[in-house]
User: Fold this.
Amino acid sequence: MAGRILILLRARLAAQGSDAAFPAAALLMQGFVAAVVCGLVRGEVPPFAYALVALSTAAALVAIPLLGELSRLLVADETGDWIRAQPVRAIELHLARTAHLLIALGVLSLGALVPAALLAKDFSVGARLALVALGLGQSVVLAGALLAVQSLLRGRAQALLVLVQTALFLGVLLGASAGLKLVPGMREWTSPDQAPNLAFFPPAWFAAPLGAFTAQGWASFAAPLSVLLALSCLVALPAPDARRSHAGPSLLGRLLAPARALAARFWVHGRERATFEWLFDALPREREFVLRTYPLLAVPAAFLWISASGESPAAKQGWLALLLFIPGAYIPLLAAHVPGSDSHRARWILDTAPIEDVDVRNGAIKALAVRFLLPFYVLLFAIGCLLGGWTLMAKLALPALVAAVIVLRVTWRRCVTMSPLSVAPDEILVSQDWLGLLATIAGVLALVAVLASRVVTGPLHAIALAALALALEWTLDRRSRAALSPR
Assistant:
């Protein structure tokens, strides 16, 4: 049995290729981030607090790949039917997949844990090794928790699974931004019981053995118990299906049906219709696209919401205008993930279609606008109303939506270099060359937001601004169709 498991494990590792087997770039990035964060706090806080910072950083750096590149290791292999036809048992396949996951987790976790252990001040060799071991246990707990969530929510609860994983992604980023503000108060932290509710924070469980741990009760054995429970989940829980599609549109798709029909009737032109309808239905079913792009849109909205919550009514108007316009700077990142698909080998259908590249491009832009940007800006409108700015939202929501569509159209050729759904999600490269472009767009949109919040003071101004934005989009759309490019 052990021999067959080892053969299966070697086959899984070999199938990844040399780059995936040793992710040097990912490890360097993990080590750089961990070194910067730990370097800022070393010598400033006691051992428990340092371990808490190091383990929190490691958890954040591992959780994000678990939601992205490593998420495939948490689900069943799509070649399962072929593999099960081989002379192996189901338990051997499962244990080989679990071993593969643990190896990948260990390699990735060491990228952050080793620099953290080396930078630790006044730590003995044993304490440094313990920090690495505790971090590896924490990574196992994260993987076990995510596997349990996926096993419970996959299938008909796919939308809820996406919501949970997006919330985790946002929690990592918001926690990282807010966590460093707590460092000055951590100089007195020597155990989890010295700060309110700290005993409920999982990294504190694993940092406790490195401090003067005096807490009693469940917190004293939370770390080993959670590791045992996570290992039990990884070994006992069957891997959920890699992908499961359901016939018919989703709830959001049904709600967007009127907008889809109106767009198809008045905005989408003849030869663009095929790409529009195809991407409108296909992109929401691409799990990797949803998991990688929804957080990109949610992050600026979350930060701006937090910033606007504590402001005075006058200052809040500017923040609410930014809430509508600034997310438009992230739209090129959304577009950059359109080429990714788990079914990318079917790209020949698009390659052999009798339509021009400009038709594909315009259809894709309009599908993204109706299927993703429209509901996103409805959500932003609702957030602004909850913050007490419904008047400003009513005046600026439509111009902000059109501005996002214009940004999508203007940056498409530079940021999207391949056909829609034509490559594997892991092969998508976000070029560093146009990050400066995104910063410029963010600056322009911020200026437009501030000016609009001050100039648009009445319904007539709002109508004029919306008409101007719509006229600009109509002009760009017409010019793109007039300049057909040969395939």
